[in-house]
Amino acid sequence: MALPPRSAATTLTALAVLAALSLTGGPARADGTDPSAPPGSVTTSPPPTVDPTSPGLKLADGATLAPAKVLDIKSVVEDLGGEERREDTNSDVTFALQAEVLFPKDSSKLNPDARSRIQAIANEIKNQKATTVRVFGFTDNLGSYAHGLVLSKKRAEIVHDELAAALGSTDVTFEVRGYSEDYPIADNTSEEGRRKNRRVEVTFPRGAVSSASSGAQS
Q1: How many beta carbons lie within 10 A of that of residue 4, not counting itself?
Q2: Closest CA to 200 of 143, 159, 149, 144
Q3: In the structure, what pLDDT confidence band is assigned to residue 170 with cuts at 50, 70 and 90?
Q4: Which residues contact 126 (CB under 8 A, 6 or more apart)?
């Protein structure tokens, strides 16, 4: 999905060594897990098997191989206003849209330009030939946790409805959740951070066709 033409894009590429994680669907509240990664949003493949006795290995005398690790390459593209963010890993594509881009304050009714952004995400889902899509809603830590759960779930459901209509396919399975203030991606002590935490994330597996296009409580 191309980022809005009115906004410049900055790209940050980082290498992160990930331990083997399995796809899980845990409870809404964090339970000793990484607070920046909701359950079910991170997957990785096991490290390849390397034969330490292979004659093709060039090792110094007495040297041994270190344990195999998986390096997951993550590419992050965000517009300058931080309204829209795309993350690509070896396995998944995630779009994060700030709540203010999609909804009025403390509301789950879509803004006038929200549908075009959701349509662009739907186009990328088609491009990646994804058949499973996760739609997660989040809020900041203002207000009650219970209110945040209701609002984040409603917002995720609205985005799901728009995506389903745009895709026009019954072959896509959706997982829709609201997490309230859990799993923040920024510091809730500033308005800038809270604005980033008020978001809806759409995540789906990378397909055989890879594309570089395309670029929560208010």
Answers
A1: 18
A2: 159
A3: confident
A4: 167
